Amino acid sequence: NAGVTQTPKFRVLKTGQSMTLLCAQDMNHEYMYWYRQDPGMGLRLIHYSVGEGTTAKGEVPDGYNVSRLKKQNFLLGLESAAPSQTSVYFCASSYLTGNQPQHFGDGTRLSIL
Amino acid sequence: QQQVKQSPQSLIVQKGGISIINCAYENTAFDYFPWYQQFPGKGPALLIAIRPDVSEKKEGRFTISFNKSAKQFSLHIMDSQPGDSATYFCAASKASEKLVFGKGTKLTVNP
What does the alpha-carbon distance between residue B12 and residue B60 come to, in Å, rounded to a whole number? Predict the structure, then answer.
């Protein structure tokens, strides 16, 4: 049982390049989330999804897009990467939102030069 | 607006000591207060959680103390061990709403 799997684990981009981060969960969870973690800033929610085919903005959505075409997958896209998007990105999933545990992947470390 | 304030930002404790991390919240509608533990290179993982109908919850060496009137909750780690060295996040939410995380506390337990 893999839980939440994120790919890739590391990536270096140049400013202006685009890329997609993939998150897959095998727990049949309805809710999925993308966070970024920066030193001293904690976990900030970028986008989330309450079910297949749905997406919604979180706290820091600018510069990112997401898609949830399949229940088990949640993709995070950067259309034109900027140095300010250098961060560690975490995907999480939960059976329900609010007062339910969130299960996190091990993160993608993204550096933008 | 930071809805959950966590302190301290970092904490150094000797092996066998007690580690205490505090969080304060603003929204009285919050009804779920979890703590997450994150080791370097890993994602956060749920450690322990409490609901406001109890004032304390204990799981092994980890205890959450909850003060509803003060809108505060804290994590106590008894007999702290070097293996407890990690970053700890408090969080809060209300039913059908998203979790709001504190900014984290980096705990170092010296041998």
Answer: 21
User: Which chain A residue has the Cα nearest residue B33?
Assistant: A99
Question: One digit per residue, pLDDT tens: chain A, 113 residues?
Answer: 679 999 999 999 999 999 999 999 999 999 999 999 998 889 999 999 999 999 999 999 999 999 999 999 999 999 999 999 999 999 999 988 767 889 999 999 999 99
| Chain B residues in contact with A48 (beta carbon < 8 A) | 98
Is some CB atom of chain B closer than 8 A to the CB atom of A106?
yes
- For residue B41, what are the contacts with CB-CB under 8 A and spacing of at least 6? A106, A107
* Polymer length in residues for chain A: 113
Name the token pair of A3.
């839980």
Write down the residue that tokens 């202006």 correspond to: A16
DSSP codes of every residue in B24-67: EE--TT--BEEEEEE-TTS--EEEEEE-TT-SEEEETTEEEEEE
